[in-house]
Every structure is written in C-alpha cells, then in structure tokens.
Specification:
The complex is a heterodimer of chains A (267) and B (273). Chain A is built from eleven helices and no strands. Chain A is an all-alpha fold and 267 residues long. In chain B, α4 packs antiparallel against α7, α5 packs parallel to α9 and α9 runs parallel beside α13. Classes of the chains: A mainly alpha (267), B mainly alpha (273).
Chain lengths: 267, 273
C-alpha cells in the first residue's frame, strides 16, 4: 500500500511538472471554465425566468446539480481523460507490453499515471457554486432547510458518482483491446454526460430511464442534490454505493478478461 | 469557375468521401457525439409542456431541436485542429506546392466527412421522431402536421450552407493565427463557448428576453444554428435582417481571412523543411 502511495506521488509530481511548461494554457482553461459555468447558469436562468419549476426543482437546488456536474467535469478532465487517452495509443503501438511487465498493478498504472492541472479550475468553481447554492437554500420561497446530513450526503453521493464515472470509462476503454479504434466511444459517452447538467426529473420519461439505468448520470449529479433537498434518503445512497461497487469490480474483471485475449501489436 | 476547377473539386470530394468511409463504426460514434440538441430537446419539451413559455409549445421545442440536430450534422467544422497540426509539423509546406489553395482541401474534407455521416444522422433523426412523435403530428395543445412551406425549406438549405461557410470562416480565421501562436486549438475552445450558448444550440432565441435577443442577433453565432433551424421548424424570422447580418459577417471574415493568410504565409518558416 505504501509503495502504491509513493508511486502515485511520483506519477503526479512528474506529470504536473511536465504540464507546467504550458502555463498560458492553464490561464486560458481557467477563463474557459469560468465562461462555460456562466453559460450553464444562463441556460438555467432562461428556464427558470418565466416561473417554470424545472421538474419540480427550485433555483438553488437546480444550481446544486450544476455544481455537481462542474465538479464531475473537473474530476474527469483532471484524472480520467488524460489516462484514458493513452490506452488506445498503447494498444495500437504495442507499448502496453511495457506496462504489463512493470511490477505494479496494470489497472492502477493505466488509471493513475497522468494528472492534468487544467481541470482544477472546474473543481474549484464547482465547489464554490455548491457553497453559494447552499447559502441560498433556506431563503425565499424555497422550502428546503439545509442540514449537515444533507451536506454529508452531497459529498458522499458525489464521490460515489465519480467512482461510477471512472468505472464506466474504464470499462469502455477496455474495449480498445479488441477494437483498436475505440477512442471515440469515450468522447461519445462524454457528450451524453452533458445531460447531467439538469436534474433527471426535468426530462421526459424515456430520457429518465436511459440516464438512470443505461448511462447512470442521474447518480452522479441529481442524487447528490436530492440528498440535500431531502427528496432522496439513505436508501438511494445505498443503491448508488451498490452500483459503484458492482461497476468497479466489473471493470476489474472485464480488464482481466480482456487481457487474456490481448495479442501485442509489437511482437 | 472553370471546368478544370470543378473537376478538381469533384475529385477531392469523392476522394475524401471514400477516405472517411474507411472507419464507419467511428463515424457512428461521431454522430452520437453531436447529440447535445437531442438532450436539450428533452429539457425544452418538458419546459414547453408546462405552458410557462408563451408562444413556445412542446411541439415547437421538439421540431426546433430536431431541426437543430439536422443543421448541426451539416455544419460540423474541425479545420483548426488539422491546420494547427499542419503548421506546427510543417506538413503545410507540400500543400502549398499544390496548384490550388489549401482551403479547398479543408472544405472538401469537411464536406466529405459530412456525406459519410449522413446515414447515421438520418437514423438518429428517425429515433427522435420515434421518441417525440408529436413533432410530426402535433398534439392537443398545438395540432397540425409539420409541413414547412417549400420556400422555407429552400431558404433553410441556403442558410444551412451559409452557416457552414460562416462557421468554417470563423474557425479557419482563428486557425490562421497558428502562424504566430503555438496552440491555437485552445483559442477555438474559447470561441466554442459563445457558440454553444448564443447560437440557439441549447437555448432557442425565441425564449430569450427581448433585449438579450437583440444583442445576440448582432453576433455571428445565431446564424450558425438558429437561423436555418428556425426556418425549417417554423417560427418568426426577420429574413432581410437575418440574411443581411449573415452576409455581412461572411464578407467581413472572408476579408480578414485572406489578409491573415497572406501575412501568415510571409511569416511561415516551414518547420521541418
């Protein structure tokens, strides 16, 4: 365990120092994240402007969903995407062999090798927005009383959502072992994840089924906010935990299964 | 345009089409990656159903976003990534030796990819009608078939290709800065933000407050999605003003583009040559 922690520290410090070569890029992405968040709030405002209660949600609770989405986006672009991008290339070029030979768990290496600081602005902005929405919850016509348990639930559910996101991404990129040109499947998944910007009850029934059971984005953004507003209780958290556990073990099993049919490109 | 140029363009188009169809499974994934309008359709159909948006019913929303999806299928542009790569790697040099402007190559490449994506796009539009059949027949609140007038369809096609040209010009002009800067694709992600929120891709201009809409209509973005989509879906459009602003933006960007191209070529040091 200690060895893994040390390795992780090395992985991250080397990739951060490599990133620091492009400092201007960091500033640019910080501006971009801020503008994108402004845009997302503009959409939300356009929906609420005329008194429409989107799926029965009030404005501060819906902002919590946007906050959870922003954190998720930041997490994905910091930790998940940079690692996922390299898997396809490694399979194509046969460099995956070198990783397999290393005296460390391959899934760990492939999931943690890189970290990209560009996603950090989104992480910060997401938590800031969550805090702001939190202060708005009690006031006005909103009937929600913020509680400590709500906050704990929000953080726990968001964490589980990120685990689900990781596991699904890993499952999909495992497919590259068989179908080399599969990189775009994660791009396609990401664009469908955009649906997580709005509470799942704001969608028609067919969409709700899809975004809960097929691509469980509802667990990633709606559930955390629902735990704050009290629409969901501990049982939903338990379901999310179950889904996260199953998907995590599933990704592990599927990866091992895939490796058995791996026929290196270089040898 | 001489017969020779026409033949060249035709050859380039068919070549790119053949090239793009090599990885058909990948194209399908690309088509899914453009599904943002379909997600927004869900949100706005529910919003339209609430009746809180005067003059914008659920049927309007369904038709509008299906039209947006169709327009998007014909206006996807990614020239900046390719151009940046060509400049930074020096691959632009051999293209400059061709007796034809590289812009022709880039445009035909995009059109070729569009053609290869068409069947998948049509499939997804079919799926939309399946999940929102009222886009076709209307519903109790807003009865009537979706039958746009022939002139609206004609104008929508013109507007759609004008939108493609405008989008191409905006991105290609930004891309030309690659002669001076290293990572221009980062600049493109900046222009993608106003494109996403002001073009009508996620918020129909019909439901914006009047003052906001007036400002947005001055920017080039609504003419990349909203104008052709509204022509197709039905809804009020000030034709003279719409096409006028569109033409002004195209002309403006064209001039800037050609000027930057000439300046840039003089500056180009052909890395790797």
């Amino acid at each position: 365990m200690k060895r893994y922690a040390q390795t992780l520290l090395r992985f991250w410090s080397t990739s951060v120092s490599a990133e620091m070569e492009y400092r201007a890029n960091f500033v640019l992405t910080a501006i971009q994240s801020t503008l994108a968040l402004g845009g997302a709030l503009f959409v939300l405002w356009s929906l609420f402007r005329t008194g429409y209660q989107m799926g029965g949600w009030d404005w501060p609770s819906a902002m919590l969903v946007v906050a959870a989405y922003t954190v998720m986006e930041g997490f994905a672009s910091t930790f998940l995407t940079p690692n996922r991008e390299q898997v396809g290339e490694m399979v194509r070029e046969g460099t995956l062999d070198f990783v397999l030979l290393k005296p460390i768990d391959t899934q760990f290496w492939l999931s943690a090798r890189k970290v990209r600081v560009w996603g950090v602005p989104n992480l910060v902005l997401g938590w800031l927005l969550a805090g702001f929405a939190w202060t708005r919850l009690g006031g006005g016509d909103a009937a929600v009383e913020p509680s400590v348990w709500g906050a704990v639930g929000f953080v726990a559910a968001l964490g589980l959502g990120l685990v689900i996101l990781y596991a699904m991404g890993y499952l999909l990129s495992t497919l590259t072992i068989w179908f080399v040109k599969m990189n775009n499947i994660t791009i396609a998944m990401q664009s469908l994840l955009e649906a997580g910007r709005y509470p799942v009850s704001a969608y028609p029934a067919a969409y709700r089924v899809f975004f809960t059971f097929v691509l469980p984005v509802a667990f990633m953004t709606t559930t955390p906010a629902e735990l704050v507003t009290g629409r969901a209780g501990a049982e939903v958290l338990a379901v999310a935990a179950g889904a996260a556990g199953v998907l995590l073990l599933g990704s592990r099993w599927f990866w091992r299964r895939a490796l058995r049919s791996y026929t290196s490109a270089s040898s | 345009m001489t017969a020779y140029t026409l033949r060249t363009v035709r050859t380039m188009l068919t070549t790119w089409y053949a090239y793009m169809t090599t990885y058909r499974a990948e194209i399908f994934l690309w088509a899914i990656a453009t599904s943002l309008p379909l997600i927004m359709m869900g949100v706005w159909v529910e919003a339209g159903d609430s009746g809180k948006f005067t003059g914008f019913t659920a049927v309007d929303a369904a038709r509008y976003f299906i039209a947006v999806f169709a327009v998007r299928q014909l206006t996807i542009v990614w020239v900046i990534y390719e151009f940046e790569y060509h400049v930074v790697s020096g691959k632009l040099s051999p293209l400059l030796l061709h007796p034809i402007d590289p812009a022709v190559r880039y445009v035909t490449e995009l059109l070729g990819e569009q053609m290869s994506r068409l069947p998948f796009g049509a499939l997804l539009i079919g799926l939309c009608f399946f999940i929102q059949p009222r886009a076709l027949w209307g519903d109790a609140d807003d009865p009537g078939l979706w039958t746009p007038a022939w002139w609206r369809v004609g104008l929508a096609i013109v507007a759609c290709y004008a939108a493609f040209l405008l989008r191409f010009l905006l991105q290609y002009t930004t891309a030309l800065l690659a002669f001076w800067l290293e990572r221009v694709s980062a600049l493109d992600s900046l222009t993608m933000i106003p494109y996403t929120f002001l073009s009508g891709l996620v918020i129909p201009l019909q439901v914006m407050p009047d003052a906001t809409r007036e400002i947005v209509l001055l920017t080039p973005f609504p003419y990349m999605v909203w104008l052709p989509a509204t022509l197709l879906a039905g809804g009020e459009v000030d034709l003279v003003r719409g096409f006028g602003t569109l033409a002004v933006w195209i002309a403006l960007l064209w001039v800037v583009n050609r000027w930057l191209w000439r300046r840039g070529l003089r500056h180009y040091s052909a890395m790797g040559a």
